[in-house]
Every structure is written in structure tokens, then in C-alpha cells.
């Protein structure tokens, strides 16, 4: 396999990368035995990663019933009294797991707090998986267990069932990302034996359509403009919409819910689903790239700025899973992404150290409350 230089990758970029829409990619051939089919799929992903940093995925294989059950569980959880939810306050854990109250995050450092509440969890063996080791994982800087509400029967089980389904989708994408970088398909195998995979259940109250009259700079929205911390994000979002991605011209492009897809953000509420899963009989999922991939690829793959503004007039729900490598993996540049003319741009640190530093910054303003 040839080894492409950063100059070659950049030469593959469109002349104007001011995208106006987000590509939809069918990942059915991710498991194809035909190397040419996998290569063609990887080329589509490479184009999306270099030019956009987001793409929708079709044929993700997650049954709508599992998505619907997870969303119903999220709605039940967020309907609990605030005092009950705060028993699992995320600041009580060393690894940022549990409940985040409304305005508890400030993703954009210039913002005034994010208008959503969330429930965060990390890797945990599936309840019905007898083959999993009973020993706790050791995740270094992000070490620690999940926390669960005690008075919500079935919540843990349905949430983890969806978690592991999306985790398998993420695992199937890593060989394609490797091919997209002209690396062997198994390049990431030893780096994802205990993958960092933080999933969030998110609830966004409706934001007034006239909110910009009192907040003209948009400093308090569903979630402020940001990039994600891990390698990539798989997102399910409901029909309320509200996700926006910024192109190179500074324009905010709507990542509208698309039936049968999830949204992938290069670094997955009831509606249709693209690597964004969305609530409805049809699911959407979206994928986006994150900062770890940007650091690994020396900025060849984009970690794209995005935000959420919920002016739909209804409650918005979404479920992102942030997929990263093992927390002890050093984020050093991939060989195909550096040359004497394109030296490494970032200080080397482990994936766990990077993620924890970003989470500490995000939650700093509410840590004393």
C-alpha cells in the first residue's frame, strides 16, 4: 500500500471547501470481503473528513426498537425531580459520569452556560454478557465506574444495550479511517482494545425564537460552538433538529435529521437517524470527527466547529457517543501525516490526559455549585 504525504492529502481537497451540505455515506460495505469495495468506501470517508468533518451514515444496523427504548428511558430519567437527578451530580465522580444540570456546562468559553441537561456514562459490560471480565477496567486519568439511578427499572439495561450497538458501529469505522489515511486496516486494532467511549443522553428545552433579542450574541444556546474531544462522534438526534456545522467561510450549515441515518462527527431523540440517531420510526445517525483524530493526523482530518440551537418549540433529545482510543494511547502524529515540511503541530499526551483536561475546562464554571 502506498504511503501518502500530507501534501497529497491536501491536494485531494476541493478548491473551495465551503460546503453547503453534509454528505450521506452508506456503510454497508464496511464488512465486505471485497477490498476494492472497502477502498471505495474509505475514499468517500476521506473526502468527508478532509472537506467537512461531518457525515451521515446509512446501513448502521441498529434496530429502531433499541433506539426507541433508549430514548424513552432518557425521557423517563429527565422527567425525574431535579433533587433526584442531582444525587448523581457529575461533580461527585472523578471521571465525569452522571448527571449534568441545565446550564451546568459551558462548552464555549465565551458563553453563559449551555441550555441542556445530560446523563453521561462510559464503558461497562452489557448486563447479559457473561463473557466479559468481572474486573474493572483501568483507564488511567479517566478511571472510574458508571453511576445509575436506583429508582428507574430497566434504564441501565436499555441504555447499555444501545451503547454496545453503537460501540460496534464505531469499531467498524476504524479500519475505514485507517484505509482513508493509507494505513493498514488493522492499524488501530491495538489502540482500541479498551476504547474510550463516552455516551451522553441529552435533553434540550425549547429556546425562545426571540431569544436573540435579549441575547444578540448567542452566548446562551443549547450547546455552544465547540469541537469534540475524542476521535469521532456517532450521533442520534430527533426531529427537532438544531445541530449546525460551521464551514470554512464561517457559515452555519444545518445538519438536518435524515431518515435511516446517524451523524458521524470526525474527531450517534426520537426522530429519523443518520450517524445522528433521531426520534421516529426511522432513525438517523451522524458522524463527526474530533480533536484526537485532528491531533493524530496533524490537522489533515478536520475537527469541525458545531453547535446546537433548539428553536423548534418542542423538547429536543439526542444521544452522542464519543469514540476514542484506549486512554493510555499517546496522541502522536501518524507516520503518513508528517514530513519535514509538515512537522507535528501538537504536544504529545495520552488520550486520557487530553479528554480529562477538556472536560475539566468544560465543567469548571459549575464545579463549585
Automatic annotation (TrEMBL):
Keywords: Iron, Metal-binding, Oxidoreductase
Xref: Pfam families: 2OG-FeII_Oxy (PF03171), DIOX_N (PF14226)
Biased composition (Low complexity): 124-134
Domain Fe2OG dioxygenase: 195-325
Database matches in PANTHER family: FI07970P-RELATED (PTHR10209:SF881), OXIDOREDUCTASE, 2OG-FE II OXYGENASE FAMILY PROTEIN (PTHR10209)
Protein name per Swiss-Prot or TrEMBL: Fe2OG dioxygenase domain-containing protein
Protein family membership: Belongs to the iron/ascorbate-dependent oxidoreductase family.
Record Gene3D superfamilies: B-lactam Antibiotic, Isopenicillin N Synthase, Chain
A GO molecular function held by the record: metal ion binding
